From TrEMBL, chain A:
Keyword Transcription regulation assigned: no
Organism lineage string: Bacteria, Bacillati, Actinomycetota, Actinomycetes, Micromonosporales
Coiled-coil positions: none
Any single GO BP term: amino acid transport
Keywords: Amino-acid transport, Cell membrane, Membrane, Transmembrane, Transmembrane helix, Transport
Species whose genome carries this gene: Actinoplanes philippinensis
Transmembrane regions listed in the UniProt entry: 12-29, 36-54, 60-82, 94-114, 142-159, 180-208, 214-232, 239-255, 261-278
Membrane topology, as annotated: Multi-pass membrane protein
Protein name: Branched-chain amino acid transport system permease protein
Location relative to the cell: Cell membrane
Gene Ontology annotations for the cellular component aspect, listed alphabetically: plasma membrane
Record-linked InterPro entries: ABC_transp_permease (IPR001851), BCAA_transport_permease (IPR052157)
UniProtKB/TrEMBL annotation, chain B:
Entry similarity comment: Belongs to the ABC transporter superfamily.
GO terms (BP aspect): L-amino acid transport
Keyword annotations from UniProtKB, A to Z: Amino-acid transport, ATP-binding, Nucleotide-binding, Transport
Top-rank taxon: Bacteria
Name of this protein: Branched-chain amino acid transport system ATP-binding protein
KW Cytoplasm (keyword) present: no
UniProt-listed Pfam families: ABC_tran (PF00005)
Occurrences of domain ABC transporter (ranges): 6-239
GO molecular function, one term: ATP binding
InterPro entries tied to this protein: AAA+_ATPase, ABC_transporter-like_ATP-bd, ABC_transporter-like_CS, BCAA_Transport_ATP-bd_LivF, P-loop_NTPase
Amino acid sequence: MSEFIYLTFDGLSRGLVYAAFALALVLIWRAARIVNFAQGAMAVSAVYVAYSVTNATGSYWLGFAAALLAGLALGVTVERVVMRFVDHSSPLNGVVVALGLVLILQGVLGIVYGNEFLPFSTPFSRDAFEVGGVAMLSRYDLFVIAAVGSVVIALTLLFTRTAIGLRMRAAAFAPDVSRLLGVSVGGMLTLGWALAAAVGSLAGILVVPTELGVHPTAMDVVFVSAFAAAVVGGLDSPIGAVVGGLIVGVLLSYVSGYIDVTVAPMAVLALLVVVLLGRPGGLFSSSKARVA
Amino acid sequence: MSGALLQVEGLTAGYGAAPVLHEVDLTVQPGEIVAVLGANGAGKTTLLRTLSGLVKCTHGRVLLDGDDLAGTKVEHLVRRGIAHVPEGRGVVTELTVDENLRLGGLWRRDRADARVALDEVYDLFPSLAQRRTFAGHQLSGGERQMLALGRALIGRPRLLLLDEPSLGLAPKVTRHIMTLLRDLRARTGLAVLLVEQNVRSALSIADEGVVLALGRVVVRNRASVLRDDADLRHAYLGF
């Protein structure tokens, strides 16, 4: 029983990171109808910025802030310099260009920082508290929960309560109509990419210290899990991304804990097959979810 | 032609290499309702889309208050007093009625008047007021048309480009919308460039009629003349 509780909490904590990363994918999908396969490489680039800033200043928090800013800047750059000029008449074009970006970013990072794992420490202890002899959450898990929770709440408020959020949703759903109503659709697209890349960077900086460290390909496995989470939730739904992330996180944790770590990636694929057989659009794909 | 609100001169435009519109000329005076008539594929919708910049023109000019609109971004037209209600109603079906209407006023600096305009639209269309939180896709065709029209009015436009407002609507609803346009013109001096396949209802409220055939203006005359000219109606308008 104590192992079950520990695995559940561990899974939820990791699931929140997948949720944040899936949320980044959903944001771009909603805004631009592109599955951003470069999300992982972009997030790793931001984590390297954090690594450099933290090493130079000795402050984790300056590095943390730098990663988020780098994410924003990278999102703007990728949209303005690359994606804007891609012919989106076929959905594959954007995907292929994104894959090209992955190769470029990982190549450049490898040249600058080397292709080895660099150590990156966490600001809080990762030792789990024990309640009645049962290991539950660590201080770092609480930090992850607070960080991802604030982002989810902030994005929800942005999209449902503000004029900018209304513009972003309208521009994504009906670009021509929105332009006729005075909405700068191009500007909203850039903003969408910037926000998504920043959320992706947050996921990166939260997850990288819990694994082997910073490496140009450090986010590749996370990307696969988060992509599965986004698809399970329904690519259009931010709520779906969060729920999908938690499901994938807990599933991975149970499979790694009770069966074997090496089986975990297969479990994610099995989940994808089961969900897509039952609900091809994902769990939250109804039009009601799109409105919310 | 001084004093014209909208003046279109020799407009040629289309998609790709083959133009859809050929040297179209037309004028809309302040407070005037001009009906653009013609069969399917005559270029009516393309004309409106070119006027608002969604389709690039290859030749010719569009003047608003005498200023050339070339180079004006689509999203800035609404600030110049042009509201375009596109074909197929243009309601953002994923957003609620209230969100659609607020979207129509977001560009306005005068927040207070945007709110007043919003209330006016709800007064004008009580059925929308009862469905504020409904998503666009939950509305009937008539309600969507009212929503699209109401949303355009929130910008207090001087010129309304209205594309097929009667498409797929019951005759009663169409009459309601036509009456409303006439009242608005009388009350606010709104000018309307009205694209319609429903010739009778369009000519019932229009001052001028322009008939397009294969992208060219073939007839321009007073609406009353077009209504009474049987030969012309048979030749171009099919009734």
